[in-house]
Specification:
By secondary structure, the chain is an all-alpha fold. The chain has a single domain, classed as 23S rRNA-intervening sequence (de novo design (two linked rop proteins)). The protein is 71% helix and 0% strand. The longest helix is centred in the last third of the chain and has 27 residues.
């Protein structure tokens, strides 16, 4: 159960970092940092939850990871709307971009 979720989110994190490298410097401590933080939060919370004892603790960390994934989805949508996210990168994040 954990391995597929972790590998999926882990594969997206470097892609998110790469896609934000060209964003304006004025966004470095705003949108860029928030997007990167949300992307990194997903696999780190899954990994941390997997190391905890018991399903209750794991569930808690998976809930946090899901919240970060929702945040990331909106941040990418917002970035696309503002013209920061290159539309050619959208197929890399199909499950993250809302319709």
């Amino acid at each position: 159960m954990i391995a597929p979720a972790l590998s999926g989110s882990d594969a997206r994190t470097p892609a998110i970092y790469s896609s934000t490298e060209g964003w304006p410097k004025r966004e470095l401590y705003g949108l860029t940092a928030q997007t990167r933080r949300a992307a990194l939060s997903v696999p780190t919370n899954i990994a941390e939850g997997a190391a905890k004892r018991g399903p209750r603790e794991l569930r808690r960390y998976l809930d946090i990871a899901l919240g970060s994934l929702s945040e990331l989805s909106y941040l990418l949508f917002f970035s696309k709307e503002r013209g920061l996210l290159d539309p050619s990168l959208l197929p890399s994040f199909p499950s993250l971009i809302p319709l």
